[in-house]
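Quick one: structure for this chain?
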Amino acid sequence: MKIKEVESLLNLSRDNIRFYEKQGLLSPRRSSNQYRDYTEEDIKRLKRIIVLRKCGVPIADIKQLLQGEAQLPKVLEAQSRQLQTQVDELRGALRLCNQMAAEETSLEGLDEERYFAQITQEEAQGIPFADLRGDFLQHEWNLLEWTMRVHFIDIRDVKQRRGAIGVAVILMLACVVRGLAYRFLWHYGSFWEGFGGPFLTFFLASVLLFPMFALQYRHPVAAKRYGAAVLVLAVLFLGAVLLFLAAMLLNAVFHFWA
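Got it. Here's what it folds into:
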């Protein structure tokens, strides 16, 4: 069966099907002319993927299920708890929205003090609302993922496929490759000199950033201040490097010192 027929049969876009293939959930065979040829088993697997995704099961969990690394009852139990948390949050948000809408007031007339106190009191009583800490964490992860994809690899794809250990292995290999190039290709120095540069960069970045993520869950204000301090240090370091380079350039032109 060709991909166009699969699209029509399952009401699923071609991009979605190929995305599942890229994630390792599906591996259709190729015909003699290299077109994808979907078997009945592929259709059955796609239907299972659709059913699980309709339940909100993450791609990573579906992959583990298909590879036999996880059991369906446990995955569904965990997903059920996650969905119940979301339902509780939405129920509280819906009630609050209806309450504010019933007042028919403008943004300027909104009594934010009263509603803030109400939310704080209800959260203290165990009534959940949306966890705003996720906004910052998701932004930071997206920034890290984008930076790694532009400069090195698609870290999110590696993490989904191989986990955190896979990411660490990839970064270590990058250090090894630079060490070999430093020693045998560029002839700048020893292997360890080439290896040490990116290794120390990754290590120091992890050491500096980990406390910020760890603090964010329990002490968001402290995490924000820590992040600001790291940013200031980074800017000062960059400024010092630029000043040093400028001094070297001026010395090369005017020979201020030997």
